[in-house]
Specification:
Elements: H1 9-20, H2 23-30, H3 34-48, E1 53-56, E2 59-62, H4 64-85, E3 98-103, H5 105-110, H6 112-122, E4 127-132, H7 138-144, E5 149-152, E6 163-169, E7 171-175, H8 188-193, E8 195-199, E9 201-202, E10 209-210, H9 215-223, E11 229-234, H10 240-245, E12 251-254, H11 255-263, E13 268-270, E14 279-284
Parallel strand pairs: 3-4, 3-5, 8-11
Antiparallel strand pairs: 1-2, 5-14, 6-14, 7-12, 7-13, 9-10
């Protein structure tokens, strides 16, 4: 196949036909007539020397050659589209594409609902996909283009990554609304004697559980000779409000996350009895 003599629009027709497996639906998506799509398929068959898609009882069935070509052609068309988009003005109201984000569980709970709400109002034609924020793969995912934007806390980032600070986050302590021993304030003695739910994460390489966000608080406690009494450890924040609402446990969480939990009525929060430090939330691309 001589690419210089080939109409690249034929590849777009091929991609849509592979997705729809139906000439009528493909024509509707492409804004073409059915004969035009059939003609394009015929020209592509001749150029490649293969039937590509053949009629079956359930629409059109791709040949092995078509299956082999499909992924590479889609990637090539995506690359061309991206190259042509460089320098173009992004108009959210008229955009019609999908974006992939990397978020931690905190991000899914605190940022995602508002992000979707804003997108539906300002850019109704876009779609969002979310992948779990794995810090060890952040650079690779962004460089490959499989992720468009990452949001969260990352201690060390690759030099080639662009980033922008969004805000600094502090910590508070959440507990059930009718906790029998803790009122509106939490003193150091109570913090030391009450049992805690500890949230950390698993290291992607070693699979070891460790605390990653409230390290400054841990150092403050150590300096005072205090060790938290840990009743339960979990690797993410998704189960936290339900556990806290049904036990007497305390849990240290980011302030914005506590706001979300408290708004749901399951828990309340109080300031910590010692300085807890903060962590920076940024966006990366």
């Amino acid at each position: 196949m001589n690419i210089r003599r080939t109409d690249l629009n034929l590849l777009t027709v091929f991609e849509v036909l592979m997705q729809e497996r139906n000439v009528t639906r493909a024509a509707a998506r492409l804004g073409l007539s059915q004969p035009a799509v059939s003609s394009a398929l015929s020209r592509l068959r001749q150029a490649l020397g293969d039937s590509l898609l053949v009629r079956s009882g359930h629409g059109m069935r791709p040949t092995p050659r078509a299956e082999q070509l499909a992924g590479s052609i889609s990637q090539a068309l995506d690359s061309i589209e991206s190259a042509l988009a460089i320098g173009a003005t992004f108009e959210p109201a008229h955009a019609n594409r999908s974006f992939t984000l990397m978020l931690s569980d905190i991000g899914e709970i605190t940022y995602l609902p508002r992000l979707i709400q804003h997108a539906q109002q300002e850019a109704p034609g876009i779609g969002l996909s979310v992948k779990r924020l794995v810090r060890a793969r952040l650079w690779e995912e962004l460089q490959s283009g499989s992720v468009d934007l990452a949001l969260g806390w990352v201690a060390r980032v690759h030099d080639d990554l662009a980033q922008r600070r969004l805000f600094d986050e502090s910590f508070v302590c959440i507990l059930r609304p009718d906790h029998p021993r803790v009122g509106r304030k939490l003193n150091l003695k109570q913090f030391a004697t009450e049992w805690h739910l500890l949230v950390g994460r698993y290291d992607d390489a070693s699979e070891n559980f460790f605390r990653s966000l409230d390290g400054d608080l841990e150092r403050q406690l150590t300096q005072r000779g205090i060790t938290r009494r840990v009743a339960m450890r979990v690797p993410h924040f998704l189960s936290v409000p339900n556990v806290i609402a049904n036990t007497d446990l305390l849990c240290v969480v980011p302030r914005r996350l506590a706001d979300v939990y408290a708004a749901q009525g399951q828990v309340r929060f109080v300031p910590l009895p010692v300085p807890s430090g903060s962590f920076r939330v940024s966006q990366f691309w």
